[in-house]
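re: that chain from earlier
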Amino acid sequence: MLGIETLKGEDVPNPFSPIKMPSFTLTPNLDFRVVIMGVSGSGKTTVGQALAQAMGVLFRDGDDLHPAANVEKMRAGQPLSDEDRWGWLELVANSLRRDAPVIIACSALRRAYRDHIRAGAGTDVRFVYLEGARDVISARMANRTHQFMPPHL
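^ sequence. v structure.
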């Protein structure tokens, strides 16, 4: 069984620098479904990609699953409402259900969102929460460009 714990502060890899993975092989079962969750800038994509590579499983960035209307709203600097999110969360759940073994980066910050993903995935889903100090995350956000997510969102 893969032991995963909450990463805090400086332990979360900087998404702008390469991370070194230990030399080992992890073999997930076919039902392996993990959501790497946290706020923007917490390292979800970086950690998810590295873990997926080390395990030899598919990685999907939840941002790539947003419907076009959500993307346009965020590009315009408008935060998403719960109503905007439900369809996107359903797409995340669908990917977890059909693409296992898979790791998906998705904020999933509210319990209702995680419950919706679990219900839609139809099977066991593990959530890994990445946590970081506000100043560390703010610095990351100030130094990154994102295809549609401005730092203030």
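The mean pLDDT is 82.
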